[in-house]
TrEMBL record:
Annotated Low complexity bias: 308-333
Region described as Disordered: 302-333
Protein name, entry field: GTPases-Sulfate adenylate transferase subunit 1
Domain of life of the native organism: Archaea
Lineage: Archaea, Methanobacteriati, Methanobacteriota, Stenosarchaea group, Methanomicrobia
Length: 356
């Protein structure tokens, strides 16, 4: 059986048959500020707020708590120097984190930094408690002190992941986050090597980010959420089409968030006005469907990003999921509904496929 056929069958089972267990009830609760990363101006819809040193690329984070005190970074040079320092720190602790705390051995999925200068540790939803965070913070803090850093700022949170990898030992595509009890040593080693890699970030420029991505605890909740967003996209497609016909909008897509790609040639003022106008349209429809604070990212792709693109969806949510594209035929421009086949189309494109 071909790997592509295996993936299709797995996803069919995923939608039609499989029931996934609920996550642990004793998981640590989110902080009151968790839905917005630092303040009301920062949204977890803007993935560019985070940069990852190793582990997986998260599509929407929810903050649990923060330790330490962030530095005052007033210039770009200060930010670059601090980021370099924290990346050096990540290299110092990587082996311990990967072997002891990181999936498939533990709950950690990502290690990186946010735009405010916090060192970031992200977990998959599950068995996370204060004792675990205290233990990991002590590891980071001790290494930081050896580098002359006192009271290292660390943010702990839950990430959202939609990545799969083909494992020879079980002869199927494997979702990062699944139970590892039946995996061979070779497959465990494969997962370890993936988690050690530096995360590839998508090339895009954020114009505006609105709304909030909710905490999605498992695959079932993720699918349900994407279905809701797809219904909103279907209902608003007709109103977005004129912007595409005029060349103002390049793409309208559904994933963990709704994505609107704006023409890079427009002025900053035009982009901002367009984002505000389109979001009002989407938000009105979302409220009719009982979805408040609907997450929408408005972005543009820099010219160098377009030239360097290999049209692969493996390293970015952008360009994945169901979407409308200005340069496609009118038949393909429509945003498909998320029935069974629509959901499969979204997951085949929206889930990042890892290569060994």
């Amino acid at each position: 059986m071909k790997k592509s056929e295996t993936l299709l069958i797995t996803l069919l089972l995923f939608f039609g048959v499989l029931i996934f267990p609920a996550s642990a009830d004793d998981s640590v609760q989110l902080s009151p500020e968790s839905n917005n990363s630092e303040n009301s101006e920062i949204s977890n819809v803007d993935f560019d707020y985070y940069t990852y040193f190793f582990g997986l690329y998260s599509q929407g984070n929810n903050v649990i708590t923060r330790y330490g005190k962030p530095p005052v970074l007033e210039t770009e040079t200060q930010k670059e120097n601090w980021n370099s320092t924290l990346e050096e720190l990540s290299n110092e602790i990587k082996d311990t984190v990967v072997s002891k705390y990181m999936y498939p051995h533990g709950e950690v999925m990502s290690c990186g930094i946010n735009a405010k200068g916090y060192f970031v540790i992200l977990f998959k939803y599950g068995n996370v408690d204060e004792q675990l965070m205290d233990e990991i913070y002590s590891l980071i803090d001790n290494s930081a002190e050896e580098m002359g850093i006192q009271d290292i700022p660390v943010e702990f949170g839950y990430g959202t992941y939609r990545e799969v990898i083909y494992l020879e030992g079980i002869n199927r595509w494997y979702w990062f986050g699944e139970n590892t009890e039946n995996l061979s040593e070779a497959d465990i080693y494969t997962l370890e090597e993936v988690m050690k890699q530096k995360t590839v970030m998508p090339v895009q420029k954020t114009v505006a980010a609105y709304g909030n991505i909710p905490l999605l605890k498992d695959k079932n909740e993720t699918i349900s959420w994407v279905n809701e967003l797809s219904e909103i996209a279907n209902a608003t497609e007709e109103k977005i089409t004129p912007y595409m016909e005029q060349g103002q909008v390049i793409r309208y897509a559904t994933g963990i968030r709704l994505e609107v790609e704006i023409n890079e040639t427009l002025s900053p003022e035009e982009k901002t006005f367009l984002a505000e106008e389109i979001y009002q349209t989407i938000d009105q429809e979302a409220r009719k469907q009982n979805v408040n604070n609907v997450p929408v990212i408005f972005m543009s792709t820099p010219e160098e990003g377009i030239k360097g693109s290999d049209n692969s969806n493996n390293n970015s949510e952008s360009g994945s999921g169901s979407s409308s594209g200005r340069n496609e035929s009118s038949k393909n421009n429509s945003i498909p509904g998320f029935g069974l086949l629509g959901s499969l189309a979204c997951l085949c494109g929206g889930w990042r496929l890892k290569k060994r």
